[in-house]
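Many introductory courses stop at the sequence. We go one step further.
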Amino acid sequence: QVTLVESGGGSVQAGGSLRLSCAASGRLYSSAVMGWFRQVPGKERDFLAAIRWSNGRTYYSDSAKGRFTISKDNAENTVYLQMNSLKPEDTGVYYCGRGLSPGEANSWGQGTQVTVSS
């Protein structure tokens, strides 16, 4: 059993940056893949980035590649998403998820709102 808690969301102007954090309580097994997803009202939750807990290998969606960076701190059991050059279309609720492969998750945090104004 793992509990995920996101933080770091907020409001920012286009071109700005935010860093999201996902703190995990409970053991993250080496097989875990931690990911970040975004959801806007009326749409499905979209994959953005993932990182393998065992070796730090990273994966990105086309929309995140080049602007977002996922990283982890094993000692703190925390995953981060550094978001740069934010655009209004990045607005949404950002969720942290734990799964076994990139792009999927079976445990979720409560989400954190990100609003990017033009």
